[in-house]
Each structure stands twice: as C-alpha cells, then as structure tokens.
Design a protein that fits this description.
- The complex is a heterodimer of chains A (395) and B (224).
- Chain A is α+β, with helices and mostly antiparallel strands.
- In chain A, strand 12 and strand 13 form a beta hairpin.
- Chain B has one domain: Growth Hormone, Chain: A (Up-down Bundle), CATH 1.20.1250.
- Helix content of chain B is 67%, strand content 0%.
- The longest helix of chain B is centred in the first third of the chain and has 39 residues.
- The N terminus and C terminus of chain B are likely disordered.
- Classes of the chains: A alpha+beta (395), B mainly alpha (224).
- Chains A and B meet through strand 8 and strand 9 of A and helix 2 and helix 6 of B.
Amino acid sequence: MLPPLLLLLCPRLPRADPLSYPAVISPQDPTLLIGSSLVATCTVSPDFPLKAEDLYWTLNGRRLPAASYAALGPSTLSVALARLNGSRQQSGDNLVCHSRDGGILAGSCLYVGLPPEKPVNITCWSKNMKDLTCKWAPGTEGETFLHTNYTLKYKRRWYGQDNTCQEYHTAGTYSCHIPKDLALFTPYEIWVEASNRLGVAVSDVVMLDILDVVTTDPPSDVHVSRVGDLEDQLSVRWSSPPALKDFLFQAKYQIQYRVEDSSEWKVVDDVGNQTSCRLAGLRPGTVYFVQVRCNPFSIYGSKKAGIWSDWSNPTAASTPRSERAAGGCDPKGGEQNTTLRRELKQFFGWVKKHAYGCSNLGIKLYDQWRVWLQKSHKARNQVLENFADCLNGFN
Amino acid sequence: MELRAGDSWGIFTFLCAALCNLPALPALNCSEELGAGQSIQQTYDLTRYLEHQLRTLAGTYLNYLGPPFNEPDFNPPRLARAERVPSATVDLDLWRGLTDNARLAANYRAYSRLLCYLRVLDGQVGTAELRHRLAHFCASLQGLVLSIGGVMSSLGYPLPAGPAGPPAPPGAPAAPNDFLKKMDDFWLLKELQTWLWRSAKDFNRLKKKVPPAVVTLRLEARGF
C-alpha cells in the first residue's frame, strides 16, 4: 500500500497497449471526388526509432516519386497526390507508408469516385398477381468507382407508409422481389435510391397497379401432332395456365416454331384466345420444334395488355414424308425410267407376237443392256448384235 | 495392409477382426469403428476439397483488396493485436505428441472460430460475386466442422465448448481503420490456408491410427 504522496507523484504507467501501431496516416480512409488532390502525412510513433528520411510511400503497390514528398517534422513525411483517378478497386486504393527496408508502417484506403446518378428504366411484373419483381438500370454509363447500394422502395398511393424491398438480385444484379402483402386495385408508387460514399440519387417515381403488369406461367401440356397424312401441317394443342383460371381474364397466345437445324423462329401471332392451332405450309419429312406463350391481358377488365409469359419448353414433332421421296435407291430420273420401261415392255410384247427370231428379246434383255452399259464395250456389242439379228428377222 | 508379427497394432487389429466375426458380438461396436474410419477419410477428403476451393476464393478476394495484397510476395507485419485468429503453426514435436483427442479438438476449435470470422466478412464485402463465393465456402467449412464433430463423437470424445455466440469473440476489437481491416482479412485467409494444409496431415495421421484393417477383414469374411 503506497503512501498517498507517492501515488500522486508516480505517473500513471501506460498500459501495455496491444494496439500500438508503428505509424499513423492522416487522413485515414478519406472519400474524394475524381480529379481532386490530396496531401497525406505519415507520422511515426515515438516508440519507433525512424526518421522522416527513412520513409517512403506506395499507392496500390507502386512507389510514389520522392519529388512529391516533404518532411513536415523529424518523424513526419507527407506526400502530395494530384488529380486523382477513380479508385482501382471498390475496396479503396491502398496508400501505404513504408520504412526504408520495405516494411509496412501504416496504410490508408482512398475512396475516389463520383456520386451516383438516378437509376432509370424501372420495369416491374407480377407473377399471377402474387408478388412483384422490379428491375432497373444504374444511371451512369460509366461507373462511379465506388460501391453503390440500391434500395427499392414502394408505397400505396394515398396511404403514406414507405416500404423497403428486401430480396435483391432475383432477376439480375439490379432487381428486387416483393413476395407478399401487395394489394390489388390500388396504384403503387415505386422508386429506387442509389447511394454511395459521395451521395444519394433517387430515381423518378413509377406508378402502377399490380393488375396492369401481370404475367403468368407458360401454357402447359403442349402437344404437337400430325394432321392425318398431310405432309405440310402440324396441329398444336395446349392448356391455358392453371394459376389464373379463377380470375377473369382473356388470354392471348403466341406460337413460335423452327426447323430442327435452324435457329430462325417463325412466329404465329394471331392465335387469339383458342388453345389449339394448325401450322401449315411446312416442309414434309422435317422435324419441327414448337413453343407457346401466354399473355393474360384484361385481367379483371384491366385495359392494359399483360406481360408475355416465358415460352413453354420446346415440343418436337415431324411432318410425314412425301410418298415419292419414300425409299428407293433409284438413280435420278427414276420417273422417266418408269414410263420408258412401260413402253419398252409393250414394244417387246408386240415384237414377240409379230416377229420371228426375237425370242430372246424382252424386257429382261433391256435390263441386262442397262447393266452392261456400265461394263465392257464388248459385252455391249454382243447385245447390239442380238438386237440387230432380231431386226433382220423382223424384216 | 499387412499385419507384422509382434506389431502391437497388428495383433490388436487381428483380435478385433476375430471378435467382430463372432455372431455373439453386437455389430454396433465394429460398425462404430467402421464409422470412424470412414468419417476420418471423408474429413480428410473435405480438407483437400476446401484447400482447392480456397485457392480460387483467396485469389478473388485478394484482387478485391487490391495491390499490394494480391502480390505473391506480400508479407505484412502481424501487428501485436489480440490474437483473434487461432494459429496453425505449432512445434513439430508438440504436434507429433498430440493425443487423438487433442488433435481433433484443436481442429474443431480452429475451424469453428475461422467460420465465425468468415461469416462476418461475408456481411461486409462489396461485390455480389465475392459474396456468393464466400457463402459457398462458408457452407463447405460448416460441413468440415460437422465432419470433425462426427469423428470425435464416433471415437467417444466430447466436443469442445465452441464459440457459439457472437461473431466477434470478446477481447478482439474490430479493426480501427479500413486498411488494418484489409490486413486482418489477409491474415484470416493465410491462416485458413495453413490450417487446411495442417489438417490434411492431422487426418492422415489419424487415418493410420484407426485401423481400417478391421474393415477389410470383416468385409472379406462376409464374402464381399
């Protein structure tokens, strides 16, 4: 127990500070506009035997020129940075104060960028009137170099209370999903706030009624089948999406189809309200892929068109082959052959009746002659001689 | 897997195999041995998988921090702050002499804490891609912690009391500035790398101790 006098005289021993750092940089982690200049200082802690001339600076790993340094005190070195570019990474540029041997004494993260611009192009859609998904685009065509936070807000017009969307990135980076507690038959005001270290920007307000932006699932049970033997037609049938069947709406449908080995889709637009359609003018013996989609326009009498659903999964079917093209390894000109053969047959029949010495002349000989045409000259001549003999006999 | 005559492990495994094949013995005992052996192998495989995953994650994260953090020879000082991240480096003789229980417990404790710190990171990090990768890695790391717990249970060891609660254990203040936080993140990833490298060796060692020979003999006897 120390006498009170000694207590007063003994200075408070500094607690061994586990957080003592070799040096301190000022400003620490500043935020700056692109093009601005900065003077930063590095002050070495008195516990460390380093002087200003023992120090140097790096920015993002690159040593800064000594010409930009200035010693502001025995253990304080400053550096001047002019016309800063946007930060190289969103976590901030690394400005570091080193001792002569390269050791790190302290660092400061520089956040250099631009304030955000108003987000634009807000579009929303509701799946079966159960939820609302919105997407938008950031205002800047270039980037702000700083991490920008987007918040989608919405409220019922005339009801006052702002709500914030919670589920982000559901349909791409700049999107948000509101899963429940949405009212129908009432206009909503929707907007997006963009904020970063340098400021905030608010988009224009979009006003909509959930019923005006309804989309639905693609039609189910899409069947594509042949129409009897018709070579150039296919029949497409589907069911209307089940989710909206209890609501008053007229559906519009669209069909698209393409040939198996092509990427060009043909669209049939005027399908109207029916759940079947016949495709005509198709190529025979070809495989086609068909897809159908649905637009639930006029939900509860809303005047606006709804939003097209996704296309159904492709269904494949093939048109029948045409008969003439069926089977056969006939050489080209097969049709001509048929007529010629028929006539030749008739001719030989007549010859046999009316000529002597033509017993071995017949359609079989003609066939052989055709085969031999491919073979040797000699064989051909043999046949020609036979034919000549016969003709002589005929005379 | 040969059983050398006179080798204490060999005799032990032979006896165990013989005992296991007696119909009188409840199958539970041997199936626990089977369970531990498989669990150790699975845990080993998981550490190798995580090592591989970490390489990609660390690359992406260090690029996010920017140079000099992503430079290959970067070696910042580990400042004398309260040791928040448990260190994997240990004296070799000490490491060799660890009992199975101590070895497993050290792994269990380390990864539980590392998981906590990584989860905090996940909440703060900027880009969506990085958040996605971190979330995936955390899920796999959680799997590793559970796997180690499973091995300990099957060998009859109690689980160490984990740092269940707050993400930042008391006595470890958050970094006072952004640059120091970047350095903390760097060291977190480094320690994770070292731990995974060490765990592979830990589990290799354990694999040899829990006799898989029991498993082999038992299966052979059953005609598999």
